[in-house]
Amino acid sequence: MKKHIQPLPDHRKPTITAYITGFVLSLTLSGAAFALVWAYHISDNELMSRGLLLAILTLFAIAQIVVQATYFLHMSAERRARMTLVSAAFTLVVIFAIIVGSMWIMYNLDYNMIPEDPTQYIQNEENIHVTSQ
What we know:
Elements lengths: L15 H27 L7 H23 L9 H30 L6 H8 L8
Helix pairs in contact: 1-2
């Protein structure tokens, strides 16, 4: 008796409407971010604080990621689409670990480098003041 393996159902049902909606949302988010930075620049940095600008741009970037993942990568929280979502989350965790690990290594390499004049460096770091008599 042969056993047939049934393929998983294709949960991705792209429609032209979904693609157009995603495209319009992506253009709107990109245009809004560009307009915000342009207005900030034109106002000689007086429109808002730099920190607020960065926070708003970060929100636009997160919204852009959600739009891209939803409309173009067809990720969702549906039971059938969960494996795609899990693989994307795992990819993000690996990328985050690589970036943070690289930054940690570079910081430690910079910290452990021997300066050109070690004696002067140690005296400055340890607040040792040498007076010549």
